[in-house]
């Protein structure tokens, strides 16, 4: 399944997103929670049925360390509400960001995250919802997450030890690490979603993704390896940043679909 995350067309309405994605042959949509809140859950469910789009992800919950100004209990309560929304949307996964380290020592921040995840997975298991922890590159996301690499993400998943908890692999955040391909055999058993992003240089400051194939992320190699490891889950494209903001959303979507059609044909060749 190939999807587009709504962050890629942030200025469009929910209805514009859904119709534009479906008309171009995308079969999935990554939902951004503020757009869901604006449009409403019931209307969203109706629109998804109309456009035959599956929800690959709901983004995001987190901030359990207090880095976004919320207390621990408020962040957990918000996440539990999002679990219910994800269940109603039949979302493939609910994305989790750990929160910034926020002047805590790293071990305390990690314990706080694990405590939050243990509370949330109890509800997620009840509702049949999968949670996915996403590692974020430190160059552009220290305030969003202290979990920055695949190894630490897998360590947390092992510690929490719930069948409902896995991870999101975003090639923008981890794809330029030369070790990522070596890690994929360990990652795939826990992998709920692959987000595709490209960039002309390592993340630094604001997120700045370029059109797929225009950057230095080895997307084809990653896709080849995922196929070899028998990953059969969804792919979700996320395009946002200065390198694409001057382009029309229509052209961004058209380019993304054409790129993926071409690269998927090559990857699938024997």
UniProtKB/TrEMBL annotation:
Pfam families: AP_endonuc_2 (PF01261)
GO MF annotations in UniProt: isomerase activity
Positions of the Xylose isomerase-like TIM barrel domain: 21-243
Tagged with keyword Isomerase: yes
Superkingdom of origin: Bacteria
EC number from the UniProt entry: 5.3.99.-
InterPro entries found in the cross-reference section: IolE/XylAMocC-like, Xyl_isomerase-like_sf, Xyl_isomerase-like_TIM-brl
Record keywords, A-Z: Isomerase
Classification via PANTHER family: HYDROXYPYRUVATE ISOMERASE, XYLOSE ISOMERASE
Protein name (Swiss-Prot/TrEMBL): Inosose isomerase
Species per Swiss-Prot/TrEMBL record: Novipirellula aureliae
